[in-house]
């Protein structure tokens, strides 16, 4: 299943693309966030271009696992608007530590490589990777269940 990851931000929104089989995830691009309507249009266009079957949006969660704050309200508004026009299922995934991990990756790998490092798209890839790994793990748990025969 081809999926798109989204790291929504008030100034920049990162996008990533991935697939469950074969499992891969890669940063795609970052879109400058002008206003909610324009970012929804831009992401919807990328959904069509990339022919994805679902979208995963990073959900801001505190270290204690609580959702809240202005950022959450903006993300949920984005999810509602995108769901109404995307034509594919839109879900959310805990995005704790993705920006921190993307920044660490930038310091460790991006600076020395001499290549442009897109933190927002990398954060979107980390969100998507987490989601796909959770999906694969759930399928594995189901397939490991003992088979019973009903009489």
From TrEMBL:
Keyword Magnesium: no
Any one GO molecular-function label of the UniProt entry: hydrolase activity, acting on ester bonds
Gene Ontology cellular component terms for the protein in this record: cytosol
SMART domains: YqgFc (SM00732)
UniProt keyword list: Cytoplasm, Hydrolase, Nuclease, Ribosome biogenesis
Uppermost EC category: hydrolase
GO terms of biological process kind: rRNA 5'-end processing
InterPro entries, alphabetized: RNaseH-like_sf, YqgF, YqgF/RNaseH-like_dom, YqgF/RNaseH-like_dom_sf
Gene3D superfamilies, A to Z: YqgF/RNase H-like domain
EC number: 3.1.-.-
NCBIfam families: RNAse_H_YqgF (TIGR00250)
Main function: Could be a nuclease involved in processing of the 5'-end of pre-16S rRNA.
Family: Belongs to the YqgF HJR family.
Descriptive protein name: Putative pre-16S rRNA nuclease
């Amino acid at each position: 299943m081809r999926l798109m990851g989204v790291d929504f931000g008030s100034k920049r929104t990162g996008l990533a693309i991935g697939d469950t089989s074969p499992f891969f995830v890669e940063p795609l691009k970052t879109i400058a966030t002008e206003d909610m309507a324009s970012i929804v249009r831009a992401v919807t266009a990328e959904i069509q271009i990339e022919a994805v079957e679902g979208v995963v949006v990073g959900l801001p969660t505190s270290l204690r696992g609580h959702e809240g704050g202005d950022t959450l309200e903006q993300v949920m508004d984005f999810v509602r608007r995108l769901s109404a026009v995307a034509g594919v299922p839109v879900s959310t995934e805990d995005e704790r530590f993705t920006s921190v991990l993307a920044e660490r990756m930038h310091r460790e790998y991006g600076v020395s490589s001499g290549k442009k490092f897109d933190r927002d798209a990398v954060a979107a890839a980390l969100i998507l990777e987490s989601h796909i790994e959770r999906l694969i793990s759930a399928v594995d748990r189901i397939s490991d269940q003992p088979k019973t025969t009903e009489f």
